[in-house]
Amino acid sequence: MKPSRRRVAAYIVASTVDAAIAGADRGTWQPRRWATKPLLMPLLMIDTVTDTSRRPHALTLAQTATWAGDVLLMRDSDDRAFRAGIASFAVAHLAYTAALLPHARLSRSGRRRAAAVTAVSALGAVMLRRDATRTRPDLANAVAAYSLVIGAMGATAAAVPTDRARGRALRAGAVLFMASDLLIGVTTFTVPEASRRLETLVMATYTAGQLMLDRGITELAER
């Protein structure tokens, strides 16, 4: 199932516009994100409407949960919505892990890469839990657990051989997704007064990572 060039182009345009709005003034521009951010995952999933024969169900679940998380986290002033958004993204990461797991190989290099990603995610979990304890102690344990779930996805992607369906791009996508979530954690719990311009970087890494994961997992399933 080859991606539609128009669909990918539309996704890139929507991602670019949304990333720019994300870093703009909250009062003036943020309401306009309701026209861009909820559109991102449907653009990646649109192929499902016409061809479900080889698209992994786990990938569809991951992107559906991601869409729910995107929408819920736009209501960041609502504590229940924030918690539900984090839970949705946790489901998405677990689904991505399930989609990647059949293609992972525990070769020597694969084990080294997976171990490195696991170590980084564990360190990130400890640091973010510490910072969340200072600012949002009610979320500290959930943040740490979520960081480990992210690490599981990244470690699984790291174990996919590079000679399998654009493995390097696939792993880069996982790293970008992890980086995006780390930036969210840092700007939420570690440096909450950070410039809103960082939100542009968050969305740029996030949307690029999603596109790479989508293409990589889809091509893995076609082999």
Short description:
The chain is mainly α. Helices cover 75% and strands 0% of the residues.
Task: Describe this entry's structure for a reader.
With 223 residues, the protein is an all-alpha fold. The protein has one domain. The chain is built from 10 helices and no strands. The chain has helices at 5-22, 26-29, 40-45, 47-50, 57-73, 79-100, 108-135, 140-158, 167-190, 197-222. The longest helix has 28 residues, at 108-135.
Radius of gyration: 17 Å
Could you list the spans in which at least 5 consecutive residues all have pLDDT below 50? none
Give me the number of helical elements: 10
Beta-strand content estimate: under 5%
Query: Quick one: biggest sheet?
Result: none
Distance between the termini: 11 Å
Number of strand elements? 0
Order of helices and strands: HHHHHHHHHH
Mean pLDDT: 85
Descriptive key words:
0% strand, 75% helix, 223 residues, 10 helices, globular, single chain, mainly alpha
SSE inventory with pairings:
Elements: H1 5-22, H2 26-29, H3 40-45, H4 47-50, H5 57-73, H6 79-100, H7 108-135, H8 140-158, H9 167-190, H10 197-222
Helix pairs in contact: 1-10, 5-6, 6-8, 7-8, 7-9, 8-9, 9-10
